């Protein structure tokens, strides 16, 4: 009797179990598409390219550029141009770069060389450029002031800044964007409504006797002038990216000295060009590079170098700031890594914001001496190549200068 009474109960329990199992299965199956969609959406979000604080979340594909030289100088060329200017003769060659040699004594005391120094100007619009390293007894040939900014287009009108020895009133100089063949460039990952603009002015008359010195630039366009760091600082929010975003300024000085071989050469190439991945620039060199000279000297001026984006950009992110630079001979395939980790002659980066250390970063003027003229002269000496690697840090090179001496 007890067994017969239990049978209906067991049947009921079995039916309830089947019903619950079926319900759970239906719920699981119906949840799968939502789960898959959420997973897909999350994946898409993770890989969606973002640009902020000077960084791109996706490393760009390789870009390549071929450029003709914008200015070639050696002692003979400087004397030729100086003689034309001093005599009032029409120039046989019009320079894209606004150098002037009207005041230069002829003949020169020796060969020619260059020096570069810069200052970062984000959120300040002014700063002091500390030019050093010109040897005693040098003769000033010409001096150029270069600066860059992120602004809303169109912004290609010349405008005036103040420049001169520090603690002096400074002279009004007119900066022009016209020497730069690729003005404007893409903005280096700060404000998608902007573009990068480069400007140049001849400031030879503002260089002091002895050439070395501290030089102040003022009145650069800048939305902020309170000297804030460009990024958040721990719990403190960043200043935003309202334009104009001033980047920095560099002083380029050409000089002559009896200790420099008279056959020394200088090749100047102008950008600007933005990259956030591998980037290769091939520069023509006419007249050809002199292979008999003992040293190669290369300067790179550019915008938006940094080591990080948190804690005012002071916390280094090696995977982002691991940029590297090579100088190469396209004819022979020869390559020398001059900057960056692993194999660089100098293992620091070209793009660490060194002109604004420790703040406000975002501008670099670097010069390295390496190898000899024979390295680039092999195979004809008709070109050289600058190769960069970037892991998503958005960079703009503005000026390249090759010295052979």
H-E string: HEEEEHEEEEEEEEEEEEHEEEHEE
Q: Fraction of residues in helices?
A: 10-25%
> How many DSSP helices?
4
Oligomer description: single chain
What kind of sheet is the major sheet? 5 strands, mixed
Distance between the termini: 115 Å
| Strand line-up across the major sheet | 3-15-20-17-18
Q: How many beta strands in the DSSP annotation?
A: 21
- Which geometry do the CA atoms define? globular
Structural class: alpha+beta
Radius of gyration: 29 Å
Uncertain spans, ≥5 residues at pLDDT below 50?
1-46
Q: What share of residues are in beta strands?
A: 25-35%
What's the rounded overall pLDDT mean? 89
Task: Give the helix/strand layout.
Layout: H1 2-47, E1 51-52, E2 55-56, E3 63-67, E4 71-73, H2 75-87, E5 111-120, E6 127-131, E7 139-151, E8 159-165, E9 171-175, E10 185-186, E11 195-202, E12 213-218, E13 245-257, E14 265-275, E15 279-284, E16 296-303, H3 318-321, E17 324-328, E18 335-339, E19 363-370, H4 373-377, E20 383-389, E21 395-404
Parallel strand pairs: 3-15
Antiparallel strand pairs: 1-2, 4-14, 5-13, 6-12, 7-11, 7-13, 8-9, 8-12, 10-11, 14-21, 15-20, 16-19, 16-21, 17-18, 17-20
Please tag this protein with its features.
single chain; about 400 residues; alpha+beta; five-stranded mixed sheet; five-stranded antiparallel sheet; globular; disordered N terminus
Can you put this structure into words, describing what you see?
The protein has a 5-stranded mixed β-sheet with strand order 3-15-20-17-18, with no helix packed on it. A 5-stranded antiparallel β-sheet has the order 4-14-21-16-19. Strands 5-13-7-11-10 form a 5-stranded antiparallel β-sheet, with no helix packed on it. The termini are far apart. 17% of the residues lie in helices and 35% in strands. It is of the alpha+beta class and 405 residues long. Mean pLDDT is 89; it is low at 1-46.
């Amino acid at each position: 009797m007890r067994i017969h009474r239990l049978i209906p109960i067991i049947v009921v329990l079995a039916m309830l179990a089947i019903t619950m199992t079926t319900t759970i299965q239906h719920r699981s199956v119906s949840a799968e598409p939502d789960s898959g969609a959420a997973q897909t959406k999350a994946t898409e979000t993770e890989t969606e390219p973002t640009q902020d604080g000077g960084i791109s979340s996706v490393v760009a594909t390789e870009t390549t550029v071929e450029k003709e030289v914008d200015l070639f100088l050696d002692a003979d060329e400087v004397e030729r141009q100086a003689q034309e200017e001093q005599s009032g003769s029409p120039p046989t060659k019009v320079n894209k770069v606004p150098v002037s040699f009207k005041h230069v004594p002829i003949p020169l005391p020796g060969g020619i060389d260059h020096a570069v120094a810069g200052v970062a100007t984000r959120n300040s619009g002014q700063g002091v450029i500390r030019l050093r390293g010109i040897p005693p007894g040098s003769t000033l040939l010409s001096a150029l002031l270069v600066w860059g900014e992120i602004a809303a287009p169109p912004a290609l009108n010349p405008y005036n800044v103040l420049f001169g020895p520090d603690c002096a009133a400074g002279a009004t100089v007119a900066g022009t964007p016209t020497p730069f063949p690729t003005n404007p460039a893409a903005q280096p990952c700060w404000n998608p409504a902007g573009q990068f603009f480069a400007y140049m002015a001849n400031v030879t008359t503002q260089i002091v006797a002895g050439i070395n010195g501290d030089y102040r630039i003022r009145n650069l366009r800048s939305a902020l002038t309170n000297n804030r760091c460009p990024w958040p600082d721990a719990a403190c929010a960043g200043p935003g990216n309202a334009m104009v975003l001033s980047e920095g300024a560099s002083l380029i000085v050409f000089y002559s000295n009896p200790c420099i071989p008279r056959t020394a050469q200088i090749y100047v190439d102008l950008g600007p060009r933005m990259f956030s991945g591998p980037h290769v620039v091939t520069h023509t060199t006419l007249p050809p590079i002199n292979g008999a000279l003992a040293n190669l000297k290369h300067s790179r001026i550019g915008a938006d170098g940094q080591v990080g984006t948190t804690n005012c950009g002071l916390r280094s992110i090696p995977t982002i700031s691991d940029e590297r630079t090579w100088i190469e001979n396209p004819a022979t395939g020869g390559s020398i890594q001059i900057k960056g980790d692993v194999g660089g002659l100098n293992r620091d980066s070209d793009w660490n914001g060194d002109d604004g250390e420790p703040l406000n970063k975002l501008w670099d003027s670097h010069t390295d001496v390496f190898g000899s003229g024979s390295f680039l002269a092999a195979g004809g000496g008709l070109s050289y190549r600058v190769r960069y690697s970037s892991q998503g840090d958005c960079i703009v090179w503005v000026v390249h200068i090759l010295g052979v001496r």
